[in-house]
Amino acid sequence: MSVTKTQGPLYDPGLCRCCGNIKKCRILNVEYTHHGQKEIYSDLFVDCFGLLLSQLDGEPTERLICATCVTRLREANCFRLQVLQCEEKLLTTRVNGFDNDDQGKEIKCDTVIKEEVNILIEPEYDAEPMDDHHSDDEKPLITRKKRKLKKLRKRKREKLDVTDEMLAEMQRMSEKLEEMQYVEPAPQKPEKKSSEDIKAFANVITIVENSYVCPFDTSFSDYFCIYCRRVFTDPIKLREHTLTHDPNTFKEVLSNYTNNKKIQIDIDRIDCRLCPEVISDIDVFKRHVTLHGKEVHEAPNDFLKFKLTSGTLYCLECGNTFSFFHALKKHMAEHFGTCICDVCGAHYFEERMLVLHQKTHKPVDEVFNCKECGKNFKSKYTRYIHIARNHKKEAAYQCSKCDEVFFSYTLRYRHMIDYHGEERLFKCDQCDRTYDSRKSLREHNRRFHLKILKHECHLCDKRFYLPSRLKEHLASHTGERNFRCEFCGKSYPRLRGLKVHMQSHNSDKKFKCVMCNAAFTQNVNLKNHIKRQHQGLDVSEGYQECN
Predict the structure, then answer these.
(1) 349 in a domain, yes or no?
(2) Does residue 140 sit in helix, strand or coil?
(3) Which end of the chain is more exposed for a tag (fewer CB within 10 A), N or C?
(4) Residues 6+ apart with CB under 8 A from 183
């Protein structure tokens, strides 16, 4: 499933200003064409929400919006237009309904008026005065008809005035609705930083600009280049790639960081860029760089230090080891996290993560029920994924770099590797096996190296990693053959045996017996057939290969 492409400049990857995700993005204040209609997303924000976005005259990378947010913005704009149209229809219906009622009355009045006008106009063609042609009894009748005609005309003028007022009222309401769309945004007060924070911020810039340390960003256990957002799984390749960027642009990158987001720096190599000095400690470098005339303030380090490796990672503060970076970063919060849970003492770097954690201590009062099957979910998002995948059969996992959408996380993961060239290789430290996902590597370690075999046979003491393998093994004790071929009826005690057998049905039978109609997928099976069924025939002459 793919979304119709929108004409206009695209940035891949880019940081969306609306959701904060790294995706394939467009520019907020540049005109695009969608289904033949032109659109500017910054204008849509003003029309729909009254939001006047700032910083729209800077670099293109600072004013990006992803395809997902564009879709939501279009839906909001469509809803706004729908409300305006319905409001206009309501007012128009009232006006037209009022006029229709009057029209029916006026038709009858016009018929009467036409007859009366004829009576009144006829005397005007005579040269003699009208009084000479009518008796005194007829004069009041004509007077009454004149009065009636005047009243009808007056009523008609009054109704026209009412119609004009209704139209004017409709116009005023339409203008009022448009005014309601725009709300003057309240001026945002910049967060004040303490003098110590400013000094620590300046020190970070000095360290990155003048040394070979590698600043980076992460998402779970994936590493991102802090300059261009390219993703890596191998820290060595991350460091090599980061050296291609100008470190003097690091200050601009930091301007997009929030106050509570910790900067992450790989200190595998700290050497000075200004001279050949080899340095292995941050504090030593801070003293050394002052010899080159650089200013270093007396302030604590306001960043997280790591030494990234492709294998086991360890904490530079306490020496604990971790298999994945996500676990190490979570552990680092115990040392430097300032958001602390008052129930269990868990540490976090960001307030929002603490809020999510604190919900685990509260009893779950609200559940989100699926109306289709009755299942309960803890969040609207998990219910949405469930309905999309199981009931609507809709794709719910969107690629962050293009408009493709997938039915599962695994399909999207494979798409990122095959079409966007993401390097996803995870090598085992114990052997030469390599996997394209951390889950596969973890399963490999648990199964072959750690020997975590929890499922034991109660008949022969054999142990297995998966319960399905134990179930297949039990069939060897009971003699059950639960795996039956749907084509020929043969049955097997194990699923693997059935899969091997199914190849004889699915593959082309290239080897055919010249004496009968038998054909086989493998040459050895044909030879065995000739030995059993055609014993006097030379094996080398008894078969031919089918084209």
Answers:
(1) no
(2) helix
(3) C
(4) 49, 50
